[in-house]
User: What shape does this take?
Amino acid sequence: MVKILKILSVVSTIGMVFILIGGALVTKTGSGAGCGSTWPLCHGQFMPSEITAELVIELSHRLVSGIVGFTVLALSFLAWKYIGHIRETKFLAFLSVFFLLLQGLIGAAAVMWGQSDFVMAAHFGISLVSFASVFLLTLLIFEIDRKFDANALFIQKKHRIEIYLLTIYTILVVYTGALVRHSSAEMVCKDWPFCSNISPFNFSAYSFEQWIQMGHRLAAGLLFIWTVLLFIKMIRNYRNSPVMFWGWITTVSLIVLQVFFGAMIIFTMLNLGIALMHALVISCFFAMLSYFILLSSRSAQAEKKSKIK
Assistant: This one.
């Protein structure tokens, strides 16, 4: 059964990546209305008579989401049944299914009734949580036969708190980034990192979209600085832990790539491939932070038990 769980978890995790990329592709190509205002059918038809590029993108995303939804449901059920004794399993199984369903429902509601830019911007953040839940469940399954073991790791309370805060802040930065796209503010600033087509200190000249764009850049810049500073702390304090050392090497590499792709979106005038990489990298970055939260929760549990004794 462990082998089946591993295969199913890997398939589900890869499938969630396709859902994330597919959702970003739908948004960035403006294909959300490719199937009209009907869901799950396209234009109310099982097999649409008129095929467009937008229809193919939207319908493909729906099909992938539906198939992956069944694999995640199966993974969550089997994990709950066979490894439910592991502390985090049931919680992650619930999150995996709940946020995947919530993600689908918000997408369906947007198609049928439409949503404001501010509501739709939250959709990508929900997708991140859904992906991270499946990713953590996969790591949990691979811990069963001790292919890698982080249970002996203890993270200090001050570092745990900073990981929690950084993860919450990342969600806020992701929201501002999604808002940039949904408010059509990607190219209101023609240069990077500043809005060179407007005097940087002439705030009254900024349009609403330019405030959104520059607000996201500022938030992303702070996220980059905070991540690098926390990376230095983690390497200094946990250099003897392979999980923490390589985990934070990976995390800081991802945030560097994220900044690079963010700049390249502007320089390449919204190149689709670059934009999709931007979405993929932040998803992986958030997944890594989520893993550190899981490790932190174990450390908190161990600290609690030691105090009781």
Remarks:
- The helical segments are 2-28, 53-82, 89-113, 117-142, 157-182, 208-238, 242-267, 272-308.
